[in-house]
Amino acid sequence: MWTYFTDTDTDISPEVASEYGYKLISMPYNVDAKPVYPYVSYSEFDSKAFYDMLRSGVLPTTAAISEEEYIKYFEPEFAAGNDIFYVHFSAAMTMTFGNMYKALDVLKAKYPGRKFLEVDTKGITIISYLIVREIGDMLKAGKTPEEIVVWAETGVDRYCQYFFADDLKFFRRSGRVSGIAATMGGLIGIRPIIHMDSAGKMVSIGKEKGRQNALNRLVSYVEEMGDNIKGHRFIIGHTDAPELAEQMASLLKARFGDDLQYEFVVTNPTAGSHCGPNGVGVAFHSKCR
Question: Cα–Cα distance between 39 and 131 in angstroms, integer?
């Protein structure tokens, strides 16, 4: 029997996780040096309160979860005779997965008959959300984890994510975005345009002056890279910017038709600690990364 895992950095809520039978691994953030675990420290994410906290000047930090924490998640499953299939956010963005593999070395020695399979979505937030749900649909349709791992070798790279950040200070502090220094400049109102590349890293690929120009730039990427976007989920993500997300939806419907099926998702707080408030992004099925 397989137990399915995903994590909170994929933007999956407990409600969506339960729809597919995923167990959630909580990826923490720190406020005033105190760790906060999404859906463990609280049952519901109050996104408005969180992003208002960032607007007030609080700058949360993040850190990898430990080897011991992974053992607490995984050992009960192995001890019960279950195998584990974990669909997670990008391993290229964190030291977290180094700790996970150390934990697995310990557990595999203790439970040599057990299997562990994984899919790296090579993304974070809405692109990971999109892939986790697509894989969940495959599982519900009867696909095995082994079959999905084979699919993922090429399938994961058939999804794109583009977004813009509203305030450069969050990315300046995090250091998580390649090429961001070239975007900074000294201009007020600059929005860096960021892409998740095929290595699973965030890369700054340009900049726009003003939110409207940034929204239009995202639409142009959907036009250029989209592949059968009406045949797959289309995700509009935001960091407590519902009005901008609605504008994004209106622009996309004007371009692709009112029958475009999309879903709004609020960025999880751990990733949001790096992005800051008032950002918007899109994730969709694509020709390539």
Answer: 21
Q: How far is CA 92 from CA 57, 113, 201, in A?
A: 29, 29, 6
Picking from 153, 158, 143, 124, the residue whose alpha carbon sits closest to that of residue 237 is 124
196-206 pLDDT per residue, tens: 999 999 998 98
| pLDDT of 180 | 60
Rg (CA), the chain: 19
Chain-centroid distance of CA 140 in Å reads 22
177 alpha carbon, distance to own chain's centre = 14
Residue with tokens 């963005």: 93
Whether the predicted model's global pTM rises above the 0.90 cut: yes
Give the model confidence (pLDDT) of 33-84 as tens digits: 999 999 999 999 999 999 999 999 999 999 899 999 999 999 999 999 999 9
Beta carbons of 151 and 158 less than 8 angstroms apart? no
The two beta strands, 177-178 and 202-209, are parallel
Confidence (pLDDT) at 71: 98
Token code pair at residue 121:
């979505």
